[in-house]
Amino acid sequence: MKKNVMMRLASGLLVAVLLTTCAISGTFAKYVTDGTATDSARVAKFGVDVIGKTETENNMFKTSYEDTTAGITVQATEAVVAPGTSGTMTGFTVTGTPEVDVTVTYTDVDVELGNNWIDKFDLTKFYCPITFTISTNGGVETLCGLDYTDVAVFEADVEAAIEAAAGYYEANTNLNTVNDDLTVAWAWAFTGATGSQNNQDDEKDTFLGDRAADDVANAGTIYVAATCTVTQVD
Fold first, then answer.
1. Which stretches does DSSP call E strand in the chain?
2. For residues 110 and 226, what is the distance between their CA atoms, to the nearest angstrom?
């Protein structure tokens, strides 16, 4: 009888211990913390506009030229060049403040002078009194046709000088303030070609004008074209 009582008492104590253990284990606390990582973004601004002017909008070559003292000195029905005239290419308007690094390059550059800039005294020789002045990031380069005996070489050198205007600009640069990095100016001096080691010849100049008067197809011509491209730097 006592044995049964002792067994019951032992069993009861075991059950009590198990219940107490479960209760205590359910009320113990532990350190708990958490954190949430979030981020967001938008597309970086580009917003660059490159507006190229057409031949009629550009003022590099004109139908009339004025002298500050004599007034209009040249008047024609189409764009012409003549002794004492000059002009500057204003072919591009580049605007925008991109939030990325960019390069501004000038490609597809094409300078053509044709085959009718010839020497009065030797029709097989190239004679061109036009001087190009190209201002770029690297400085100013002056190239005069009187220093060349080959029209193709003169054209290629002017093209290379224009292409050298390529520039690199860091993010958030206002391109409207730097788009004048390329300036292409030309001049046909009235007397004495600027930047040339060779002398300009009035007779040879007159011969070019006479050829234009006799047959416009024989007139010396100038054509300048370029494409301005703004590209994000990788």
1. 49-52, 62-67, 71-80, 85-89, 92-95, 102-112, 118-119, 122-126, 130-136, 139-144, 167-169, 183-188, 223-232
2. 6
Question: Per the domain annotation, does 145 fall within a domain?
Answer: yes
97 vs 218: CA distance, rounded Å: 47
Residue 17, in any domain of the structure: no
Containing domain of residue 195, as a range?
49-232
How many structural domains does the chain have?
1
Q: Are strands 102-112 and 223-232 parallel, antiparallel or unpaired?
A: antiparallel
Non-local (6+) Cβ contacts of 75 within 8 A are 63, 64
pLDDT digits (tens, 9 = 90+) for 5-15: 555 555 555 45
Asked whether residue 37 is assigned to any structural domain, the reply reads no
Higher pLDDT, 183 or 53: 183
pTM (global) more than 0.90: no
Half-sphere exposure of 187 (CA within 13 A, CB side): 15
Gap between the Cα atoms of 85 and 1, Å rounded:
136
Cβ atoms of 145 and 96 within 8 Å: the answer is: no
Q: Which tokens belong to 140?
A: 């100013």
d(Cα 189, Cα 202) in Å, to the nearest integer? 11
> Going by C-beta distance under 8 Å and a sequence separation of 6 or more, which residues neighbour residue 156?
none
- CB under 8 Å to 55, separation ≥6 — which residues? 79
Residue 2 lies in a domain: no
